[in-house]
Each structure stands twice: as C-alpha cells, then as structure tokens.
Amino acid sequence: MPGPLAALPWGQVARFTLVGGVNTATFYACYLPLHRLLPYFAAYTAGFVLSLVGSFLLNTYFTYRTRPTWKKFLLFPLTQVTNYAVQSAGLVALVSWWGMNSVAAPLAAALLALPVTFVVSRRILRPPARRGDGPDQADQPDRPDRPDRPDQTEPPVRSGRPV
What we know:
The chain is globular. It is an all-alpha fold. Helix content is about 60%, strand content about 0%. The longest helix has 28 residues, at about 10-35.
C-alpha cells in the first residue's frame, strides 16, 4: 500500500516551491529597502502585501494550471493570511526568542511556512477532484466547460457510410 507521500502531486509541489522562491525574492526585494526606513515588522508587512498579487497570478497559471477567477482572487488572501500568520510567528520567534538577525529571519520563516501554505493554497486554487476523476487528474490543468480546445472536442461525426 503506497504511503501518503506517493499521493502528493509532486509536479505541483515543485512548481509551488519555485513560485515560492520567486515570490520570496520579490518580497525580499521590497523588504530590504523598506527595512532601512521602517521597523523590521512594518517593513515585513509592507513587503508581504506588495507581493500578494504576483503570487496569486503565478500560483493560478503556473503552479496549479488553473484559470484565475474573481472568486479565487477573493479567497486567495486566506492562503496568504495563513502564510502571514505562520511566517509572522516564525519571524518573531526567530528574532525575539532566538536572536536571529532580522535581515535573514524572514527567509527562515518562509521556509517554515512552506508546507502549511501549500496545503491551504491547493485547497483554494485547486478544489478537490470531481467524482470519477482519478488521482492523476489532480495535477492536470482545469478543463473549460465548453469544448473550445482541441483536446476537449468530440470526434467528428462521420457520414452514414460504413467504414
């Protein structure tokens, strides 16, 4: 019997990690200059908010290969609230309790939040498979409701002649 790791959509995990790296770099590029002007936590919050929209677009198009919708966009901040809470707790713990440098601590906090954020974002951006979809469908792109793509069309109707 395969374990729970075998059921993970590893393609999504890899893409999520890559997008997380890009998003973290974007965040950090905002955080560093703000850190010179603001207290570390205010700079952290501002950088986090600035990277939110890019994260949504990268995760919908690239990670989960799904269409962005207004509903997903409005729910997406829930993934970021979770991420923010886990990273914030990690940031405060790393800086205040363990004395880590406030320039490096956000990167470590981001790594600590990765598994929790993946689960929550997958739940929002990639709803569970419908009945009848096999486990291999979980890593497939969304299919539109109308057959406007070649892989969605039905075979052409042939004339009544025998083949």
